[in-house]
Amino acid sequence: MERYAPGKAQKFVVMAIVAAWVGFIALASSWAFQSYHATVKAAEDRVATSSLVVATHAKWIYEFGGQATRRLADLVESGRAPVQVNTVQDINGALEGLPGTVKAYVVAADGKTLYSTDPDLKPIDIRDREYFKELAAGRQDYVSSLLISRLGGEQIFVFSRRFEQDGAFAGVVTVSLSTDLMQPIWEAVNLGGNFAVSFIREDGQLVARYPKPEAGLDMSSYVLFTDYLKRQSNGTYIADASPLDGVQRIVGYRKVEGTPFVAVAAADLGVLMRPFWHNIEVLSVVTALACLGSLGAAFRIRSLLRIQDDQAAALQTALDKNELLLREIHHRVKNNLQSVMSLIRVHLKPGEQSQALSDRIKAMVAVHELIYQHDAFEALDAAQLVRRVTENVIGAYGSGVAVDFDLAPLYVSNDRATALALLVNEVVSNSLKYAFEGQDSGRIQVRLHTEETGDMSLLEVSDDGIGFDTAIAVKGTGTKLMEGSIRQLDGSYTLDGSDGTHFSARLKLI
Asked: Residue 259 carries which DSSP code?
């Protein structure tokens, strides 16, 4: 008959739930993947559009800066510049239409400032500035990187142009623009969060940025110039960390045609990715609800299946137990019948009494009584068995002999219990029959305990009777049964009759 295998249905349910979850996770992952790329694409489109706005402003500023320096250079070279330094109306006219705070200077080749629109003009030497040195070396015009003004301390960038007299370098005209002009562009773009707009010179030098940096920056070794601009003149990319402030941004860049500028709009990646994270939150809520629902259903199904498995397992256990008990009964009945037949054959000899046969069968019955009373199918309480057999013998002979018990809590296996019971029966019976002959009273002490080392137990039966000479004692049926029982218990014994009788046996009970 095929045995019931508990857990099959539970495994099937688990596998079904796992399969459903794998499908759900695959679907959710695909949706999250598409949502992520859609959000990134929308963010890239937005920063690309913003970079176009920044590029338009950069081109406009460059054209007007260049136009202003050309006007001033033409004004100086034509000789129409005012003679008095404080007469600046013609210079102001040349700067009309330029954005922001614009300051103009005309500086001679020796570094002396000839004309200026700056009311706070101070005598400073700019010949060490790149926008002067490059023109003195022969360049026609120049746009500086981000500078700190030596006059006011604010952040500026400078358009400069060379002018000549009689074909020789005579000085430079400069137009200084405050980087504050980036703020309106920043406000117009409004990408949200921690975003920034920048003009960067094509050699990687930062020209202007808003929000303002603490200082200028050389970006020539940054990935924008080492990689992206070499591949295409405009595009987008994700910057893991800004070289200025370490913020993760998505960057839109565009090389401004006809200018030395690269326009940059860098948006806060966390802000632009909020729609994606919102979708993830929705997905998480849906997943949590689905998870709780499926787990609840799984636990309920598992509980029902567990009850079914427990019932089936209990039935199977009961069946196995009954089969085991049936085999045990057959085995014990066979052994007991063999023992009874052996006892009967012994007692058929002349001189044996029926009472001894009865006592020995009672000792065997005591074993079965303990099994049935306590459901002890594997091991019995050895102390209780010894006590019961001893009391049965005392009761059978009606003796007034007192018994003292010193019994340790030990166990004896079912296979050895009958041998132990017969051994105790024989030893105690011998004491009652022979030790107190001619006496009205006596005392027997029965001890059972373990040895300090090993797995052997020690059974001792002592009496205060008349004793006997072990050398001349005749071995009868009882002695043979006693020795046979000891052999079944893998033991040995000693018998001393010099001062009363003392029987001691080393036995293996388990």
From this structure: S
Q: Give me the amino acid identity at 208.
A: A
**Largest distance between two CA atoms of the chain:** 165
**pLDDT tens for each residue of 188-234:** 999 988 999 999 999 999 999 999 999 999 999 999 999 999 999 99
CB 111 within 8 A of CB 101: no
Nearest to 221, CA basis, from 203, 208, 198, 209: 203
**Element (DSSP H or E) covering residue 443:** strand 443-450
Kindly report the number of other CB atoms within 10 A of residue 404's CB atom.
10
CA distances, 145 to each of 54, 125, 219 (Å): 17, 18, 11
pTM over 0.70: no
Distance CA 100, CA 199 (A): 15
- Give the list of residues 6+ apart from residue 211 with CB closer than 8 angstroms, or none: 186, 196
**What is d(CA 242, CA 43) in angstroms, rounded to the nearest whole number?**
17
For 96, the token pair is 């009309």
Quote the CA–CA distance of 266 and 252 in Å, as a whole number: 6
Residues 399, 440: contact at Cβ < 8 Å? Answer: no
When computed from its CA atoms, the radius of gyration of the chain, rounded to whole angstroms, is: 56
> How far apart, in whole angstroms, are the C-alpha atoms of residue 39 and residue 35?
6
